[in-house]
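Researcher: Sequence recovery benchmark, item below. Answer with residues only.
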């Protein structure tokens, strides 16, 4: 489970701001006491889109699982439907995580904001992930708040305000009707509202100054900027792949917490503890919780590990062709991996065919694309790439029954 840590720079920081809404932002007000206090002396576990390593992201199933697994916070995304309802979904288009292409074949490109709530409610939001989850629906924000109750904290991302004009105001309006979510001290873990879009969190903060806000970013901002933010922002959420210990120290020195995304390997979790992170956003909250309590992160480990992911390079003509995962049997006995599968960070699934047994010390290469199978290679026959070749990715290795046996992450 090697992890390369090579923070890179140069990506654009965040989406453009919500220009369609006139904004008169009052002077920023100091944020309430940091809500992201570590639980029991170790970092808090944020379930990214729910427990999305083992259930379809941003569904009731993923949120219930995260609660059952003992996550401290749910991290999730909110957008606007065509009729102005607040809905819980990550992508600005529907096809990756719903059956929209089938249900509304003539509505390309299936933008979330082109569909009414009634239409969104007709979509299946679980079957794309696994047959076991057919019937999951896109939730409204009220359904989300009702489901969570006071069982867990909530870190709500205002997703893509540039294509959801007025989102910050709509969320603030809705929360005003849910006093139990915004009164200081009303919840065991206070609500945190974040965005990549600084103007959106300024707008939100101007509406509800008692609610904690966070700035999501690729890189930690420059120190002068951190000083500006520290008066009203409680935490910074940077990309773990680009985060350096000195960045963490700068944010803490400025008076804010550091809670990066998406931290999906035991090596990174250990790094995060050493670096002084106040929380980590992960698709695998139960494994993070295990590690933080001194247990095996993945109790079901079977001796087979993800040794390497050979991903495509930007510009490859057929990026799926050479892509493969190397599974290594590090145990002293043969392991039958028939039907095992890997999930990428965005929940894409790559499988192992029937009849594959890896001998002790041996390896199996599981290809994304087409090819001729033999005892040491299996091909998925796909014509789209799976593993992120520009930033990095992570992989959960699952037995056929879904149990996770290894977690692996890499940086490009
Ligand atoms: O909380 C930050 C993280 O969720 C941002 O990434 O794309 O998963 O919303 P994304
Ligand atoms: Ca998010």
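Model:
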């Amino acid at each position: 489970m090697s992890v390369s840590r090579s923070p890179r720079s140069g990506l654009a920081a965040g989406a453009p701001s919500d220009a369609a809404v006139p904004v008169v932002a009052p002077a920023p007000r100091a944020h309430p006491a940091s809500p992201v206090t570590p639980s029991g002396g170790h970092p808090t576990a944020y379930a990214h889109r729910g427990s999305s390593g083992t259930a379809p992201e941003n569904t009731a199933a993923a949120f219930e699982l995260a609660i059952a697994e003992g996550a401290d916070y749910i991290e999730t995304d909110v957008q606007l439907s065509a009729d102005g309802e607040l809905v819980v979904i990550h992508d600005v288009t529907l096809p990756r995580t719903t059956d929209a292409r089938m249900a509304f074949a003539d509505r390309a490109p299936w933008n979330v904001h082109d569909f009414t709530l009634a239409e969104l409610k007709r979509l299946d939001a679980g079957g794309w992930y696994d047959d076991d989850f057919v019937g999951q629906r896109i939730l409204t924000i009220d359904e989300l708040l009702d489901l969570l109750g006071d069982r867990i904290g909530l870190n709500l991302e205002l997703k893509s305000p540039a294509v959801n004009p007025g989102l910050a105001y709509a969320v603030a309006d809705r929360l005003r009707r849910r006093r139990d979510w915004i009164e200081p001290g009303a919840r065991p873990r206070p609500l945190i509202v974040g965005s990549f879009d600084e103007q959106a969190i300024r707008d939100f903060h101007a509406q509800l100054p008692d609610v904690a806000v966070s700035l999501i970013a690729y890189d930690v901002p420059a120190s002068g900027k951190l000083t500006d933010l520290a008066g009203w922002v409680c935490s910074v959420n940077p990309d773990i792949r680009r985060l350096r210990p000195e960045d963490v120290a700068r944010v803490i020195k400025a008076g804010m917490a550091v809670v990066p995304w998406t931290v999906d390997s035991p090596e990174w979790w250990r790094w995060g503890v050493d670096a002084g992170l106040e929380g980590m956003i992960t698709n695998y909250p139960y494994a993070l919780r295990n590690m933080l309590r001194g247990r095996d992160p993945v109790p079901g480990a079977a001796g087979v590990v993800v040794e390497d992911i050979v991903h495509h390079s930007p510009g490859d003509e057929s990026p799926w062709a050479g892509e493969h995962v190397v599974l290594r049997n590090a145990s002293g006995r043969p392991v039958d991996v028939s039907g095992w599968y890997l999930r990428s960070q965005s929940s894409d699934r790559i499988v192992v065919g029937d009849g594959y047994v890896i001998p002790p010390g041996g390896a199996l290469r599981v290809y994304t694309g087409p090819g001729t199978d033999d005892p040491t290679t299996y091909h998925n026959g796909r014509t789209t790439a799976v593993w992120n070749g520009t930033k990095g990715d992570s992989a959960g290795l699952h037995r056929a029954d879904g149990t996770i046996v290894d977690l692996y992450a890499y940086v490009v």
